[in-house]
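Much of our argument rests on the idea that a fold can be written as discrete symbols. In the encoding step, the backbone of a single protein was reduced to a row of integers, each denoting a local shape. We regard such an encoding as a compact summary of how the chain folds. The record that follows shows the chain in one-letter code together with its fold in token form:
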Amino acid sequence: MVKYFESNTVFHFTWEQVAQGFWKRYPNPESQHVLSEDTVYREVKDNKLISKRLLTKTNRPPKWGERFISARTVRIVEESIVDLKQKTLTTYTRNIGYASVMTAVEKVVYKPSEENPDWTVATRSAWVDSNVFGFGRAIQAFGMERMKKNCQKMVVGFNYVLNSMFPKAQTGEHGPTTGSSNVNMSSVQTGKEKLKDAAKKASDLAKAKAESLYASASCQPSQSS
């Protein structure tokens, strides 16, 4: 029987911020298991950004699983659709390495929270299956636990990236929006001061070189991974 689970995660950032940060979520302190990421396909079709990326992650099987899996890395295909009109970011991931031993498929939909429009809800669905005779259930259980642990790391790491990209989003009329229940206000103030200082330096440099460093600033999802 296929192992299946669902979960919802609330990111205390707007959908536009989450959609932009999605492309820059690696590296982060929780992503040591992600070794590389490469964009292999990208196009805009019907006002939707469609992308396909290839991720390489570490793959440390338990002792009993070494008879089936010898490599320490696995390739993952990540397909995504960004719909600006509907404000949804939908991702599909699946392993292409060792698929004969175990298949793991995950779907995540990011969309604005109905509770708070300044927040984003990620609805995750995951399936794990294995047809290895005599070991199928054990492999499924292992794969599901691995996916859950990686999901927890993803949430922590993604929040780290979002907080780094959008420090001003840490306060707002709807309350703390850092993706964490504990907000260090001194850190918020420090972040604002750093932004002001960086902006001043950028302005001075722009005047000196007669360039506009902010011409490329955009709220659209980044086109590079």
